[in-house]
Design goal:
50% of the residues lie in helices and 19% in strands. Strands 1, 2, 3, 4, 5, 8 and 9 form a seven-stranded antiparallel beta sheet that branches. Strands 11-10-14-13-12 form a five-stranded antiparallel beta sheet. A five-stranded mixed beta sheet has the order 16-18-19-21-20, covered by helices on one side. Helix 1 (12-35) packs antiparallel against helix 10. It is α+β, with helices and mostly antiparallel strands.
Length: 880
Amino acid sequence: MSKSPIKFWNSIVIRFAIFFTGLILVAILISGYIVFRKSSVVILEGAKERLQHSVELAEQSFKAQLNEVSNDIAMISENLALKNYVNHRTSTNAANLGQLFAATLHNKPDYFQIRFIDQSGKEVIRFDKMNGEIMPISIDDLQQKGGRDYFQESIEMNRGQYYFSRINLNEEHGIVSEPPIVTLRAASPVFDDQERKVGILVINVDLNRFNTQLDNISSHGIFTLLLDEYGQYLHHPNAEMEFSRQRNSNFSFGNDYAQPLNSLPPGVGNLRDTKGNFYIDFLRPLEYMQGKRVIYLMSAIDEDTLLDSARKVRRESFQNLAIVCLFSILLSYLFSTLFSEKINSVTQAIAKYEEGNPDVILPVDRKDEIGLLARSFAKMRKRVEQTLLDLNNSLLAEKKATDQREEFLQNMSHELRTPLHTIRGLTGLLKKNKPNKSQLPIISSLEKSVENLTGLVHDVLDHQKLVEGKLPLNKKTVNLGELLNDIYKTYQFEALQKGLKFNFQIAHELYDLSYETDPLRISQVVTNLIVNAIKFTHQGTILLRAWRETEEQDRLFISVTDSGVGILEENLKKINERSFQERPEVTGRYGGYGLGLSIVKQLTSLLGGKLRAESRKNIGSTFTVEIPIIAVTKKGDLNNPAALSQEYLPNLPEKLNIIHLDDDSSSLDLLSHLLASGPFVIKQFQDFEQLTNALNQQKPDLIITDLILKQNDIQERLQEFQEKRQGSCPLIVVSAKENEVLKKISPYYFQKPFDGQLLIDQIYTILGAKYYPVPDFTYLEKNYDYQLKKVNHAMDLLGLEFQEFIVQLTNLRETQDLLIWQSITHKLVTHAKSLQLNNLIPILQNNHQLPDRKVLGFVEESLKYCLCKMRLQKWINSTI
């Protein structure tokens, strides 16, 4: 670019820069003098004092409530009526105690229930207040409360100690009472004259009036929140957002605000919700029951609401500023019009070029900045056009390469997963047909080979996900000792064939305990290291070691040491490169499915660990992987219960039509074998048109289909098919595609390869739903706080109990023993209610006489259906 000899004061750019810089500075000074005053500071300080005052009023009210109920419990405990009753439980003493309870409820508007519970946990005397009416509870309606937390904690207390519960909605028989009552339970142990603990006194306090006080405290934009330690709203201006855990809703402080509750400091602070609104808050934790309980009082106000007055001042400032700006604009306009014509030609050329018209003539012959700008723009336009052309060509090439890669991976996945699925299914059938001892090692070898090939598929497909950061972890509870021992045995023979010693050292605690981690990723890491060691070691020894260290946190260490060719020191850092090898002339693979040290490095990082390499040329190498793990339980404990039997399948009382769509003949044969013992009429097709023709002739009860038929993807056609039929026929998708794709088509899907028994369970649960009651596991999941491992363990225990019931019911049809029937129904009716097996409940409750064989058979088959559903639900839980 040629230089133009333009003097400083002749530069149009300089003149405009000096003028507008001065104008902007003057405007900023005027607006800053008007706007930035201390009004906002005064408003904020006043608001903080109001927030603190609101919290202190609420705190005083709550503590007063606690003191009041504590004093009342103490007075009642010392009252002669209660002492007489606990020492002499006569009807007269009971009546006197009832009068005392009734008088207490009458005089205390916030108390709605008072009870005396004996040392066994049984309610003895109870009075309730509903709609202002005080009434005693009959003996038949008194409940057993021995399993409740408040009873177990209260009965262990000493004289003069008081129990206070967490604040929640009152429940009767596990259901929130209507209208909802915000409840605080207060209790204290009761002693007789011999200082023996005979029970507890419990008062249920209605906190609705306290919540009303919180609403009254809130004013002038201030709102008050009451929260528990989990961030659940105990009080909120919107009552529907309160007590989400009991109402099974998602409302919580953590979901509504950006900062976790436990990260907020007590006192004044700043708060931001998930919508981007900012608040000033005052937070105070309130501890009670000797610090065992804590709730959080928070008052807050929206900054936008608070600063309305400051904004009013700012608006007035803007009005004044507008006058100044108007005057400045007039001067600017007069000045800019003198120069606008000079640069107008260049700006029009730039604007038209942006619109796609590059043929505008530029004033390149001018000697000032206009000419300099025109010449520069002309050169830049040529470079931009060439760059855009190159980018478009590169983009087309990249898109083509990406499409080819995706097509290759998709086809490879389908071509590998489908036969793997068939081999796995047929191996399962062989194992199910009671092979002799000599056949078991062969079947076991088949299973390990399938796992190795499955690992190959995972390695190939997962590497790109690793690079893109999209590979998920699937953590499970696993015995690391057994996992590593299986890998060692898999490659022990291959090392021996090459004339190598392959040793294995492992800490015993890795066998004794189970750990939570991703077993597939650990298997990939260890397998890659072993494969590389065998490949690059021509003679000598390979050592696989594993141990655990717990200094700061549980960490698993796995090392593979070989006496192979080694790696130069300066090349050790290159292990991050996927394709690096110290000797390029060494080609091929010696078994296994590892893809090199790069994937080891990436998988280790994904697991939160690190890889260390030590090596000396021609002496050997040691690769050590350090991975964080979590010890769960001892081997054989909670996470390894007895498996549910797979032999129990419900009887389907009629022939059911199933259409199976797959282009792989082995998969067609496999499904036929899996369902051979069932009441199914299976029609199998290999293209979509055959399916369409079959549907026009007869409506099936179930369709099972792959997504790729004869190299054609039928995903879109299936989606259109589902939309047209509006889900009238259940559809199970069985394919090698990713789960995210499968779930878009149908809620019932399996990714190849998978356990054939799962498909059988899915088929029976879908088709059996119209014959047998479908269990609802919501109550079970809620009881275990939605901790899926504990839920699965509970299902195992429940399933084993159901299996025993099935055996007893089978015998009962022959023995006709009423006592056995009553024993079964006594236990089973509780499970039926919790699982909402509504069709079974009337049968089980009417246990005064033995039902006929048909009804007994219905109960037995319903339990088999539940077992089938449990096995499937356990598998779903394990994949989450």
